[in-house]
Request: fold
Amino acid sequence: MPSFRLAEIAERFELPLQGNGATRIDGVATLQNGRDGAIGFLANRQYRRFLPGTALSAVILGPSDAPSCPVAALISDDPYLSYARIAALFIPAEQGGDRAIHSRAVVDPDASLGANVRVGANAVIERGVVIGSGAVVGAGCVIEADCAIGADTHIASNVTICRDTRIGARCRILPGAVIGSRGFGLAPSKHGWVEVPQLGRVVIGDDCEIGANTTVDRGAVEDTVIENGVKLDNLIQVAHNVRLGEHTVVAGCTGIAGTADIGARCLIGGAVAVLGHLSIPDGTRINAGSLVSRTLPEPGNYSSGIPVQAAEVWNKNVARLRQLSDFVSEMRAIQHNNDDSED
Amino acid sequence: MPSFRLAEIAERFELPLQGNGATRIDGVATLQNGRDGAIGFLANRQYRRFLPGTALSAVILGPSDAPSCPVAALISDDPYLSYARIAALFIPAEQGGDRAIHSRAVVDPDASLGANVRVGANAVIERGVVIGSGAVVGAGCVIEADCAIGADTHIASNVTICRDTRIGARCRILPGAVIGSRGFGLAPSKHGWVEVPQLGRVVIGDDCEIGANTTVDRGAVEDTVIENGVKLDNLIQVAHNVRLGEHTVVAGCTGIAGTADIGARCLIGGAVAVLGHLSIPDGTRINAGSLVSRTLPEPGNYSSGIPVQAAEVWNKNVARLRQLSDFVSEMRAIQHNNDDSED
Amino acid sequence: MPSFRLAEIAERFELPLQGNGATRIDGVATLQNGRDGAIGFLANRQYRRFLPGTALSAVILGPSDAPSCPVAALISDDPYLSYARIAALFIPAEQGGDRAIHSRAVVDPDASLGANVRVGANAVIERGVVIGSGAVVGAGCVIEADCAIGADTHIASNVTICRDTRIGARCRILPGAVIGSRGFGLAPSKHGWVEVPQLGRVVIGDDCEIGANTTVDRGAVEDTVIENGVKLDNLIQVAHNVRLGEHTVVAGCTGIAGTADIGARCLIGGAVAVLGHLSIPDGTRINAGSLVSRTLPEPGNYSSGIPVQAAEVWNKNVARLRQLSDFVSEMRAIQHNNDDSED
Reply:
């Protein structure tokens, strides 16, 4: 494990230091489960109660919390962001960092790999693939023909990138992700469903993350597009011809149907279903468990999820919900009657 | 890229030609983003407004739209189906089409491969596997012992087919799919859960599609059955002993629990949950985001999804929903009172 | 196929025998689709109607059903649990049981494998990995550096276990599962999202099951913890720093967000969304299709799923639901009016 003097960290990240700069920091921990040598952070006031008793050696926190910090501190206007940067000091060195192309990788002679590209065991890189310098392709990956992968992009183990996919620089593709697979296009015929050829590609910008076992389908005619800075969590489905605008974030288990056009800087919660052929404006927030079935005319904060109740209570409520339209009609009748009797 | 004269396409697909048959077609594009040399289609009237200004060289469209087409046209009673067939002319040739079994595939000597079978790098084909002629097994796939794969079935990269699975002819299995994995069968005991052995298989008919990262579990006692022509999108869970009737289509992120019996020619939307031990009749449509918790007595069009509202409005509505049964009782009391006072 | 005398099975599992102990049993089948030589079970009274006509050679059933059994029987107070144990006699022998480490596996010389460990073709085991005796690593798996896998744990094909993951003894990890992938931690900055390093691990106890294509993310600071006996179905997302208490079962397509703390012996249905930073007490049941958005103060049986209705009925109800708060206000006004007029 690397270790640093707290003063060294303070200087590197330009943060005011409070307390003993000679404190050695060799890793991270939480406020409530701190340990000697670890640095942590306080960003959410819900955790403020753990500050007085923390066993951390140092805490990254805001100016207003600094006076009550019992140990050394780095003071930041955005403690979580500062933590994100400082914690990167403690990421373990990549496995296999000393090897370039594993002897058991299968790299087509007609693929082009930039400087310092690393390829793991049993990875397959087909003909025509171009990989930018510093990129990593994990063990067991399949990068099909004619893909282009940008510099410093990190593709984890067992990922599948289908032919002719474009991925920008500094992206992170997590294990099991499938990018560029056939879109789900079917035309009905008398003899059953006929496959509609999916002739578009997937085009992913720079600085994107694609989560574990997430799937992004290639376009039917035009491309499926994921713009710069988009972050997708695990087990998300992105169908053909979707566009995700830059810096949009999508949480796990969400499905986005074909030709949905989602703006920039949106926050889409987990387990959301977004139907196809609709648009969501820039800066929209969709809360977890919601269904978006039509174009949203303006940005905002949208929901349709229902939190649990005790089943016996919920079952009664849902029974009434299933008759709600009738109840409203009954109520209208009462109202009408009352109005009449008041006349 | 291959290229064709429009008259040649018209003749091959038996479609009336309007305009210049000598027009060269070398690919597809949309009405709104057309280009010289591309053919597109007009099937949804929502897109009719793009017809007058299209930059396509030719359009596949219905007889009623033909008069307003500014470029050459192929006239079809079902433009989308015609497009599906014509677009297949432009599917890029398969990578590796010139090799049969990749030198880095691991094929058990006791597996039997038909004529013209292709197997990608690092694919593993275990003993007793039988693969029909013309089938393709992608790079990184694992086909476990005793599976049978029909002729011309296409298994994409990194697919897992567990032992003794049966797959018919002309199927398409997309990357990351897992077929024939252990069903989720557990019996409670004093010492925790006991695994119930899953001794059935998965049996898939002809002309089926199984989407990327979709999972289909093997049966507990009898088989899990997917009939001819069934099409499953990505990230779908099909539990043990489910039956999916022929030509049924299921959209992404849907889960189907154990022993659900789903009829033929159903359309199951995305993000649907179908509970177990129930049946859905032939020809039923379940809209996206729905929950099917009981047998549906008759075919029809079913829903239970709730579209989003502005969160502040929705939160008020959902607060009331959680007390709905009580409100209905109150309303009944008012009604009763009114009735009394009218007596 | 192995075959046993029924009396032999009765003795081995200490179950009273009714009828001919010489009956040969060579497999399992259901009551309704029985066959000569097969044993089945009757645990759910819904299936009792199939008992009189069964073609099974023997049935495992409760004492009260024994008198009406037309064939030989084993009598058990828990027929399903007894079936689970007996059926294990008929699990086919593992493929490749005769080989230890496949010649095409890539095992780092600095990995440590216990006695009788089996490793499939094209599996990759990186440096520092420790695997307990009797464990199996399937074809195409990637076990990244410094993982520890307990004795007799069975890892199916194409699984990815990311670096430094801990998995206990006798676990079962199904194909395509991804364990220990980066958690979804992002800090906003002026220039877009900054990755928060995920420095925790995944720690899984003994006797756990992780379903096909299920994903379990590594912790951000502390570990993600899955305790002994937890069983996860397919396509489940477990985010960073979740804790799942012992013997909890989760059905398919469920997502559990970061830092959710779920107690022991819970039953979480399919397609459930559990939000983050909340807790669910021991012994809680959450029914399928529910959303858990806050800490549940006490154990119980919770729901929020809505079963489908005919779409034309549901659409009317949902239209009213979207105005429910207003209707309740109207009703209150009527009530108030009535109260006034009664004064």
Observations:
- Chain B touches chain C through 78 residues (CB under 8 Å).
- The domain at 4-90 of chain B is CATH 3.40.1390.10 (Udp-n-acetylmuramoylalanyl-d-glutamate--2,6- Diaminopimelate Ligase; Chain: A, domain 1).
- Chain B has three domains: 4-90, 159-302, 311-342.
